[in-house]
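User: I'm writing a tutorial on reading structure tokens. Could you give me a worked example: one chain, its sequence, then its tokens, then a sentence or two explaining what the tokens reveal?
Assistant: Sure. Here is the example chain.
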Amino acid sequence: MKGDFSRDTFNQRKHLLRVLMQQGRVQIDADWNEQVSILLHYVQSLASDMIGPYGKVDGAFEVRVLEVDSDLESLLGKFHNGIEISQLKKEHLKKSLETKGNFIISPGHYYVDGLLCENDEIIAYNDQRGYPFPGSLKVEEINQQGNHLLVYLDVWEQHICWCEEASNSIPGMREVALGLYGPDTATRSRLVWQAKIYLLEKGPFDCSTFEDIKNEFQPKNRGFLRAMAKKEDSSVDDRCSANPSAKYMGAENQLYRVEIHRSSGHEKSTFKWSRDNGSVIFPVVEGKIFFPSGKNGYEMSLTLAHLGLDDSKALKKGDWVEFVHEDQVLRNLAEPLLQVKDIDLQTMEVTLVTRKELPSSPQSARRPILRRWDQSESKNSEMNPEGDITIKEEEWIDIEDGIQILFKEPIQSTEKLHYRTGDYWLIPARVATKDIEWPNAPEGIPPHGVEHHYAPLAILHLEYDNKIEVVECENIKNLPFKFKIT
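And here are its predicted structure tokens:
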């Protein structure tokens, strides 16, 4: 999570029960956050052990293809318990369902690996926030893609700060008494669920099939990372050995974040890094569209709410930033990074330049922000012209102030390696020890997140006359999961 945290101390292998505050002691954010993580781990484990990996309340998250308007009226009355649904909502649903192949997802609760997914109202497949999702079929493609389609849930935890909050129409986490763009307080996380479609191969669908599909979505090897403070003795070639002279040379305590930018689906996988866990952001007030800048670039002009609350978190010329908005986050896209070309301190207007044209326009982006990343040409010789850094396994890469990282090759030659956009590692660096906090793991450690959870919903069967039949997953042979909670 990209918050301004000191570090993340929760480790489920310690089997801790609670955090106890002591009188007259210094309070830090990590202790409170660990207490929440301990309790959350307990509750989710309890739900998963009692319910199983998948369990839904009867009637929840049903997938239905509606043929006539009366079906919709009947469902609205059934699922909304007599609560009046606005005519505007009804008309919007009817219009959405006019697209052939579209279907609705009913309200209710679905537990996935102990995580509670809540759907508050009937929603059409193509009305989900962030739709269309990369790798998932669009409504128009459903009738054109074979005759067996799996509808499944993709569930993950999203971190949000006040300027990324979903609704501006109700009171949110922002305390207005602190000023419009003054200091903020705590951040939040929320559970995101997305109904997606997967094209099935011919043959029966059972629990082992879905396990294989889940491994395809989230491979066991999404990269392994090692980290250390740089050795002072350059004559020592064996970097895998421990060295007591290793030092972190920074002037402040930091929580470094190494995040995958481009996944393995691209020509080359890349990463970016931040010394503040990616928490340095700048809300966008107004933006202008891209326009060509020379032969190999595009420019964009944005008006920001502020340019930083202090010098260490200020935006400067030459910085690399990421244009972040709701759809980009929900689709887990890695859009090209931008470099700050010019800053007007009076109007707080910044000019950004990029080597590649962005697919997103600042006018259509919802809740846009700029997120600062800290790689630079002066510190990272391996940096690409686009601002990210290419991943090269088994080679130590300099970050800054003596910190180095190394991406490990797969432990087994048969193990598929797939870097996934958004996956990250956290590296706490401390001035008191002149070192980083990192486990002694020569094989490296997997990403700290983001973990996705998956659950089946239904099978769409395309018949010879192009009609779509919905087969509920609970009736599929050899799928021994508890699907109903009574």
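What the tokens reveal: Residues 29-51 form the longest helix (23 residues). The helical segments are 29-51, 69-79, 87-97, 207-217, 326-331.
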